Input
Amino acid sequence: MASMNPTAFLDLRHIRKEFGGFTALADINLEIGRGDFVCFLGPSGCGKTTLLRIIAGLEVQTRGQILQNGRDISLLPPALRDYGIVFQSYALFPNLSVADNVAYGLVNRKTPRAEIRQRVTELVKLVGLPGSENKFPGQLSGGQQQRIALARALATSPGLLLLDEPLSALDALERIRLRQEIRALQQKLGVTTIMVTHDQEEALSVADRIVVMNHGVIEQVGTPMEVYREPATPFVADFVGKVNVLPARRVDGELHVGSLRLPSEGADCDVRVYMRPEDVLARPIAPGDLHVFDACIDKIEFLGSFCHVHVASPALGAHKLTVYLSLNFLSEQSLQVGSTVTLKLLPERVKVF
Amino acid sequence: MTAALPRSLTTRAVRLKHHWVDRLAHVLIALIAILLVAFLASPLLAILLQALEGREGEFVWFDNFIAYAKTPALLDSLWNSVWVSCVVTLIVLPLSFTFAYALTRSCMPFKSLFRGITLIPLLAPSLLSAISLIYWFGNQGVLKGWMQGIGIDQIYGAPGIVLAECIAVFPHTLMILITALSLSDARLYEAADAMGTRAGRKFLTITLPGAKYGLISAALVTFTLVMTDFGIPKVIGGNFNVLATDVFKLVIGQQDFPKGAVVAILLLAPAVLTFGVDHYVSRRQTAMLTARAVPYAPKASPAYDLLMTLYCGVIAALVLAMLGMAVFASLASLWPYNLKPSLRHYELGLLDAEVGVAFFNSIKMAAGTALFGTFLVFTGAYLLEKTKGMDNVRGLVRLLAVLPMAVPGLVLGLGYIFFFNAPNNPLGGLYHTLTLLTICTIVHFYTTGHLTAVTALKALDSEFEAVSASLKVPFFKTFWRVTLPVCAPALIDMARYFFINAMTTISAVVFLYSPETKVASIAILNLDEAGEMGAAAAMAVLIALSSTVATLLFMLLAWWVNRRTQAWRTTTR
Output
C-alpha cells in the first residue's frame, strides 16, 4: 500500500483484534492524512466498526500501535484521546435539550457560560438547525437528531471525527442529503474524518479515500475512482458497484471469452473476467470496431432513466451479461425483450483475476 | 489459527491504561462485590457448613441429613409441605389464569378495579388472610357451621393453610400470568380466523402455547412461595407441621442448629430449582415474540364479557371478604359477643403490647430499605451495565445479584444467625440491630430491584458512556445528568417495592430481631401467640393501611418526579 501522505495524521500499525478464537482484524496497517475524509467500507462483520472503535479506544486491540498526530495513543483510555464520535443510534441524551446536548463536552471544560452559549448557537447554525436549541431530541426527526449529534461531536473542536454508520438509520432521501452536508462541513472545517459504512454508493460519493475491508483485512485503499475503476481484488470489484463475471481462458496473450478474443498479458491459465455493465457499450459502434457481438435481450429491468438489460449471446456461450442502456436508446431502437442488440466490449476496462 | 503467527507477536495482550475515573468505577464495583459476599454469600455458606457440622462444630459429613431422615415427625413435615404446596398450586393456577385471561382477553368493564382489588393482599403481611380465615371459620367463626357442613372438621391445619395461601399467592401468580398473556401477537389470531379456526382450537393452539412459559413460571413461583412461607402456617397451622415452622422450632426452640440447617437446605432446593427453570423459561419467552408483533386487542362479546365479569366479581368479592373481615374484627369490641366498633384492639396493640415501638421500627426499617436498597441496587446495576473492566468481579456481582431470587427469606435469616452470631465474626456487633434487619431485607429483595434497574438501564442507548468519554466527561457526571433522571420512574418503583416488602416481610427477620428491634409484622405473630387475635388483626390492618398510604405517597412522588424529569417523553414533534 502506497502512503499518499508522508506525515500521516493517524497511523495504524499492525493492528490485530481477536474475540476469543475469532480474528476480527488480522493485521491492519493504514495511514490517514490530515484533513482526509476516509471511509471504511465493507460488508457487515468485516471488522470496519471494530477498527473504528479501536481508534476511539472503546475496544482494545489485541496487538498493534496507533499514532495520532505523532503521539502514541495505543494505550490511552478514550477520555485521554482526541476525537469526536457520532453513532448510528445518535446517542443523544433524551432528557437534555439540544443546547445542553451540544454543550455537554464544553460545560466540563469550565468554558465561560456566555462563550458556551455562543458556541452552541454557532454549531447549531453550522449543522443547519438554527433556533432548535430549546427542543428535546425526541421532538426532532432522525436526520435532525443526527445533525445535532454531529454538532455535539464537533463542539470541542476535536482533531479527529469518527462516524459509525451515521446514516444507516435514516430514510433514503435524508441519507443522501445528510451525506452531502457532512462532506461540505468536513471540507469547511478541515477535520480529519473516518466514516464507517456498508453502503458503497455513500463511500464513493463522499470519501477522499476508501478503505475496502473484508474478513478483517484491508482489500484495497484508494480514491473512489481507483477503487471503482481499478479494483485490486475480485472482492472489491464485486462489492463496489455492479460487475459481470465471466469465466475465460488465456492462451498466448489472448483472452478467450466465449468466441471473443481480448488482448491480455500473462501466462496461460483459466481466469475470470470482470467487467462493469457500463463498460459494455451499445453505441457508438463504428463499422470495423473490434470486440463487437450481437446479443438477444432476455429481460429488461426498468429503473427510470436507465434500465438494467440482461442479454444472452451465442458469442458468450451460456453466460449472460447485464448492461446499462438508457431508456431513450431503448425506445429509439424500439428494443424489447427478444430484440437483438449489437454490443461492444472495452478491453482496456476489463479486469482479469 | 493463531498458531501460525510468530510467538513473540502473540504473547502480550495490549491493555489500556486506566483513567482515574475508570479506577473509581472499579473500586465501587469491588465494594458492591464485598457487600454481597459479606451479606449474601457468606451467610449461605454458613448454612452449608452448619449442616455438615455436629453440635460441637466437628465435621460430620452427612450425618445430620441421615439423622433427619430417621426422624419420622420431621419427614411428616416435609411431606405436608410438599402436598400442601401442590394443592395450592393446583387450585390457584386455573383460578388466576382465568382471571388474567379475563383482564387481558375480554372487554369486561372495571378491569383496573378488579385488578387493584386482587393485588391488595400484597400490601399486608401474608398472615392477614390466615387471621381473617380464623374469624370466618375458626372456633368462634361466623361460618364454622357451613364449613363443618361440608365435612371439614376445623380450619386449623391443612384446610386453613391451603385457603389462606391461595389468597396470599393469588396476586403473585396473577401478575406473572397477566404479563404472559399480554405478550400476544394479534396476527396469529387473524391468521387463524382467516382459516376459519374455532375458538376452542385457537385457545389450545395459540393462547395456551403462548402462555406456556408464564404458566410454568407461575406454578413454580406458587409452589415455592407456599413451601417457604412461615406466617400463615404459624397462625393457622395448629398442629399441622410444615418445613417452615420446623425450622423455627428447631432453631429458636431447641437451638438445634445443625438440623435447622438441614431443613433450610431442603427449603432452598425447590427455590433453586424454580429459579433455574424460571431463568431458562424467561429466555425462551422473550425469544418467542418479535418486535414486529401486533398486540392483541379483544373484541366485545356481551355474553362472554358478562361471564368474565361475574367470575372476576366473585374472586374480587372473596378477596374483599377476607380483607373486610380482618378490618371488621379489628374494630369489634369483643368478638363474637360484642361487635360494637371500638378502637380497643388498636389501643391494646399499639400501647399495651408496645407494638407502637415495633411499628415505628418497621417504618424505620422500610424507609432504610427503600433508600439504601434503591441506592445500592441501582448503583450496582449501573456499574454492571455501563462500565467496563474487572470482568471477574463483574461476573461474581452478576451472579450474586440474581441469587437472592432463589433464596427463601427463612433460609436467608437462618444464614444470618449462623454467620453473624458466630463468636469470632468481626461483624457480630450487627446482630440484633435494626441495621442488620435492614440489610437482610435489602438482600432478600435484591433481585427484583436489580432486574427493574437493569431493564431501565438497558433501555438507554449503550453509547452514552462512549460519547461522554469522547467529550471528556467522567461517567459519574453522565450518571447524574442523564442516567439518573431518565431512570427516575424505575427508581421510584424500586423504592416502593422495597418499602412495601420491608413493611410486610416476616420470614427473614423472624430470626434476627431483639426485643428492642422487633418490627410490626413480627409483633403480630407474638400477639397471635399470646391469644390477642383482635390486636393481631388490628396491627395487620395497620400495616396494610400504612403500605397503602406509602403506595399513594410513592405515586405522588412519581407524578412529581415525572413532571420534572420526564418532560421530554410527552413532547411530540
User: Anything to note?
Assistant: The domain at 71-339 of chain B is CATH 1.10.3720.10 (MetI-like fold). Residues 1-11 of chain B have pLDDT under 50 and may be disordered. The radius of gyration of chain B is 26 Å. The beta strands of chain B are 332-334, 338-341.
